[in-house]
Amino acid sequence: GVFMPPIETPDALASRVRALKASLGRPLGLENICLSTDDAGFCSRYHQTFIHICREEGLSILLDVENLRLDSIGSGIPMPELLGYYEYSTIIGYHVAGSRAGEMILDTHDQPVSDITLQLLLQSYKNKPAPVIYEREYALDIVEIQDEVNRITDWLKRQVLLTGSDHYV
Predict the structure, then answer these.
(1) Long-range pairs of 103-109 with CB within 8 A, sequence gap ≥ 24
(2) Which residues have a Cβ under 8 Å from the Cβ of 99 and sit 6 or more positions away?
(3) Alpha-carbon distances, residue 110 vs 14, 21, 136 (angstroms)
(4) If we measure between CA atoms, which residue out of 75, 82, 81 comes closest to residue 41?
(5) What is the pTM for the complete model shown?
(6) Buried-most residue among 32, 101, 115, 149 (CB within 10 A)?
C-alpha cells in the first residue's frame, strides 16, 4: 500500500518505504500499479517518482506490464515513453494478466493476456530477462490456467528466438 492513491509527496513515500524496509528486515521489491486516470501529468509523475524512490532506496521492481498498457490507454502517454521510464531500473520479474475493457480502466485479471501486453513483455524481456508471473482470477479451472501459461511461454520463446536475442526463456 505504499504507492496506492492518493499518491503522497516523494519525501513521504520514501519515508514509508524506508519504514517498511526496516520493519521487514529483508530485501524489498515493489510493483507498479494501474492508475485508472486520464491525467497524463499525474501518470508520468507517478512512474517517475516510483522509479526514483526504488532506485534511491535500493528496491527492485516487479514490472506489471499490463498496468503499463492500461496506464498508456487511460493517460494517452505512448507505451514506449512509459516503458522508457523503467529502462535503467532493476527489474526482478514481469507480471502479466488480462483485463476486461470497461468504463474504468482496471487490471481485472479475468481475461487472457492481450497481444499488446505480450508485445510489451517481449520488449522488456529482450533487454532484461527475468521471471514472468501470470495472474488469473475468478474461479478458472487449472486446465484453462495451464493453457494460458503454455500460450505465454510458447509465444515468448518463439519471439525471443525470432528476434535473434541471446536470452532464452
Answers:
(1) 104/36, 105/34, 105/36, 105/70, 105/73, 105/74, 106/34, 106/36, 106/70, 107/34, 107/64, 107/66, 107/67, 107/70, 108/137, 109/135, 109/136, 109/137, 109/138
(2) 66, 70, 105, 106, 107, 108, 109, 110, 111, 114
(3) 33, 32, 6
(4) 75
(5) 0.86
(6) 32
